[in-house]
Write a structure and sequence with these properties.
The chain is α+β, with helices and mostly antiparallel strands and 131 residues long. The chain is 15% helix and 32% strand. The protein starts with a strand and ends with a strand.
Length: 131
């Protein structure tokens, strides 16, 4: 289970496959995920018929959708070439379309700078900070 840190509408996703690898996913790896929990936007999300229309317009993904994603944070320690070790508090990802562009327009949180080496500059430009 990973947290989804963009505003695509997914809150928690489950990794089903790591693409082009036969090992666990690291920062910058492309994975296939299933949306497990949707994010609720604003107070109108629990309302009647009118509230559900605005919520479905805000959410770009629904529960059960199968999407591609990029891992941006991992709990597993990662040693960098300069000798420093980086470790995050949670596992997190960003949903992308098949072309590699992020589905959401904003990111909430820090991402690993290893994304620069793996050519995910669009995700780095959306992130408020990279570590």
């Amino acid at each position: 289970m990973l947290n989804c840190i963009d505003n695509s509408g997914a809150a928690v996703v489950e990794c089903t496959k790591v693409l082009r690898m036969k090992r666990h996913a690291k920062i910058g790896d492309r994975i296939i995920v299933v949306v497990q929990k949707q994010r609720s936007f604003g107070p109108e999300s629990g309302g009647g018929g009118g509230g559900s229309v605005s919520t479905s317009a805000a959410n770009k993904v629904r529960r059960g959708d199968i999407r591609h994603a990029v891992v941006v944070r991992t709990v597993k320690k990662l040693q960098r070439p300069d000798g420093s070790v980086v470790k995050f508090d949670d596992n997190a990802c960003v949903l992308i379309n098949k072309g590699g562009d992020p589905i959401g327009t904003r990111l909430n949180g820090i991402v690993g700078s290893e994304l620069r080496d793996k050519k995910w500059s669009k995700i780095l430009s959306l992130a408020p900070m990279h570590l």
